[in-house]
Amino acid sequence: AICGHGCKYGECMGPNQCKCFPGFTGKTCNQDLNECGLKPRPCEHRCMNTHGSYKCYCLNGYMLMPDGTCASSRTCAMVNCQYGCEEVQGEVQCLCPSGGLQLGPNGRTCIDIDECSTGKAVCSYNRRCVNTFGSYYCKCQLGYELKYVSGRYDCVDVNECVTNTHRCNLHAECLNTEGSFKCKCKQGYRGNGFDCA
């Protein structure tokens, strides 16, 4: 077989007939084939034509696999989440373990939501809200204590006069009130109950 015009990047197969090497085209195999323009496209994300071949590139956050596809390079291990994460459609999202926490500005650490100040907490009238990391609890109001009464726990008024936790004067009477107490100076004494003369 003789090819008078020659076969630059190929072999002469018959009279003036060239068989081009992969990546080349044309009558004399002297033109580079643009593989990036072929259908189906040889690369998943980005393709760059080179002399006689092509190169595949992936978008940011992805890495090139041996088969030419692009896989997410952002794995849970690489993102370094505080409590763990999930991978959804190639995207990594850090998670917080409770509804009382939210993702911080860096997208990796969890910060506490203060349910007591945001009004998300629901405590009954005789209980007050105490914020904790990731949650909250309802504590008895001051002047009440938690007691097991008729089959359930309830906040019951503390009788400061009986428990002797009042600060009444020695010459005053202690009067228990709901959630608190009052002091009244005894007969023959004057004052506010804390100071009697």
Automatic annotation (TrEMBL):
<dbReference type="Pfam" id="PF07645">
    <property type="entry name" value="EGF_CA"/>
</dbReference>
<dbReference type="GO" id="GO:0005509">
    <property type="term" value="F:calcium ion binding"/>
</dbReference>
<keyword id="KW-0217">Developmental protein</keyword>
<keyword id="KW-0130">Cell adhesion</keyword>
<keyword id="KW-0732">Signal</keyword>
<dbReference type="InterPro" id="IPR000152">
    <property type="entry name" value="EGF-type_Asp/Asn_hydroxyl_site"/>
</dbReference>
<keyword id="KW-0964">Secreted</keyword>
<dbReference type="InterPro" id="IPR052235">
    <property type="entry name" value="Nephronectin_domain"/>
</dbReference>
<dbReference type="InterPro" id="IPR024731">
    <property type="entry name" value="NELL2-like_EGF"/>
</dbReference>
<dbReference type="Pfam" id="PF12947">
    <property type="entry name" value="EGF_3"/>
</dbReference>
<keyword id="KW-0272">Extracellular matrix</keyword>
<dbReference type="GO" id="GO:0030154">
    <property type="term" value="P:cell differentiation"/>
</dbReference>
<dbReference type="InterPro" id="IPR009030">
    <property type="entry name" value="Growth_fac_rcpt_cys_sf"/>
</dbReference>
<dbReference type="InterPro" id="IPR018097">
    <property type="entry name" value="EGF_Ca-bd_CS"/>
</dbReference>
<feature type="domain" description="EGF-like">
    <location>
        <begin position="112"/>
        <end position="150"/>
    </location>
</feature>
<dbReference type="InterPro" id="IPR049883">
    <property type="entry name" value="NOTCH1_EGF-like"/>
</dbReference>
<dbReference type="GO" id="GO:0007155">
    <property type="term" value="P:cell adhesion"/>
</dbReference>
<dbReference type="InterPro" id="IPR001881">
    <property type="entry name" value="EGF-like_Ca-bd_dom"/>
</dbReference>
<keyword id="KW-0677">Repeat</keyword>
<comment type="similarity">
    <text>Belongs to the nephronectin family.</text>
</comment>
<feature type="domain" description="EGF-like">
    <location>
        <begin position="32"/>
        <end position="71"/>
    </location>
</feature>
<keyword id="KW-1015">Disulfide bond</keyword>
<dbReference type="InterPro" id="IPR000742">
    <property type="entry name" value="EGF"/>
</dbReference>
<keyword id="KW-0221">Differentiation</keyword>
<protein>
    <submittedName>
        <fullName>EGFL6 protein</fullName>
    </submittedName>
</protein>
<feature type="domain" description="EGF-like">
    <location>
        <begin position="157"/>
        <end position="195"/>
    </location>
</feature>
<keyword id="KW-0106">Calcium</keyword>
<keyword id="KW-0245">EGF-like domain</keyword>
